[in-house]
Amino acid sequence: MEYKKTFSALVMALGLIGANSADACTGITLKSKDNSFIAARTIDWSGSEMDNMYTIVPRNHTQRSLLPNNATDGMEFTSKYGYVGLAVEEPQFVVDGTNEVGLSAALFYFPEYGQYQPYDPEYKDITIADFQLVSWILSQFSTIDEIKEAIKDIRVANIDKRAKTVHWRIVDATGRVVILEIVDGVPQFYDSALGVLTNAPGYPWHMTNLNNYVNLMPGTAGPTKLGAVTLTAFGSGSGFLGLPGDFTPPSRFVRAAFLQSYSIQQATGYESAMLAFHILNNFDVPLGVQFAVGKAPNNMPSATQWTIVTDLKNRMIYYHTMYNRTIRSINMGEINFETVPYQSHPLDATKQQTIIPVQIDDTASDEMQTRSVDEIAAKVFRKESYE
Question: With contact defined as beta carbons under 8 Å apart, do 337 and 59 qualify?
């Protein structure tokens, strides 16, 4: 058996994760000038520290889905494509990953608004747990159209009644992005021009809600005449005054959409991947802010447990965690998915921030480079720096 925990322990873990209301995952996508596509997201959960790991799955690896009522004989599937994913609690619970042909899939919570078909043991051979759907997608498909056709023939289920429903962001190698939501038991695919995703309500509602922020713009607003009074901005960036800063899903969706859309397009996939980390820094959730004072359930470094950024063109996966902000990478191009063994490893070998001491040069000259006042002023007070 590849499952480390007992079935009851797995159900309890997913049930508790799904029952907690402090979920705040945020996803963005970027395109670089060299046509690299970047899929990035945070994973947030405040209830406790999850077992976070990366999983490498070879071709021809067979998995079987868990099911409700302590059943372990759900839908069976064998990998056509190898993939790498970041998982929670168990290696098969991949919540964000990419396969060898450049298809990415990611799971986000979707509480109260999604609804799967009722579980029916008669259909157990075509029923898969929602937390294993990413693994199924990555192992079987290379395009979004293939997924849309195949999902008609399967059923998705929760394995614990306490768990919330989820929805998914899928990106293929062409840069096409769709959002998959199952509402009233029916899979719905929405093409996403922005590639942004958070949580509830449904994706169409989030897109409509963006119209409430039609006044926002990059840059500095004003000056504006108010009768005889001239109003001027206190500083740069006032065009975004009113951009919501709280951690609710609608506000994070709006904030992500604007920050992603108005960031400078980068030349390469690597540069875009690094930009994605900077954008997503705006969505790190300090533990405690989602709860009443004194009601936070624990004292982890952050409610944002990890952040993943994937360069689909170059098959590079980057991540950092709440324990260690040092970016680590997995080069999928170096993996032979025909021969590599199935494996999983913790995201953090050591749960401690990597700190590199600055080495002081005791032999350095104490002579300072001198520049004229005009040279210094020209550099420090460039007009464009304040626009």
Answer: yes
CA distance 291 to 168: 26
Q: Once rounded to an integer, what is the mean pLDDT over residues 313-331?
A: 97
Residue 209 DSSP symbol: H
CB contact at 8 A, 304 and 42: yes
Residues 142, 116, 70, 9: is their CA dihedral positive or negative?
Answer: positive
Rg (CA), the chain: 23
Domain limits, the chain: 7-357
Fold held by 7-357: Penicillin V Acylase; Chain A (3.60.60)
Give how far the C-alpha of residue 374 lies from the chain's centroid of Cα atoms, to the nearest Å.
47
DSSP 235-277: STTGGGTT---S-SHHHHHHHHHHHHHHSPPPSSHHHHHHHHH
Is 323 in contact with 352 (CB distance < 8 Å)? Answer: yes
Answer whether 92's CB lies under 8 Å from 13's CB: no
- Give one DSSP letter per residue of 149-207, joined into a string: HHGGG-EEE-SSTTSPPEEEEEE-TT--EEEEEEETTEEEEEE-SS--B-SSS-HHHHH
Catalytic residue among 11, 25, 171, 300: 25
User: Helix, strand, or coil here: 145?
Assistant: helix
Residue 25 known to be catalytic: yes
Q: Within 10 A of 327 (CB to CB), how many other CB atoms are there?
A: 13
By C-alpha distance, which of 149, 18, 5, 115 is closest to 66? 5
Find the distance separating the first CA and the last CA of the chain, reported in whole Å: 60
Angle, alpha carbons 354-357-359 (nearest 5°): 150
The residue whose two tokens read 């930009």 is 275
Q: For residue 320, what are the contacts with CB-CB under 8 A and spacing of at least 6? A: 277, 306, 307, 326, 327, 328
pLDDT of 114 over the 60 cut: yes
pLDDT digits (tens, 9 = 90+) for 330-382: 999 999 999 999 999 999 999 999 999 999 988 877 666 677 888 777 777 76
Q: Which residues contact 344 (CB under 8 A, 6 or more apart)?
A: 53, 54, 55, 56, 87, 91
Question: Per-residue pLDDT tens for 234-283?
Answer: 999 999 999 999 999 999 999 999 999 999 999 999 999 999 999 999 99
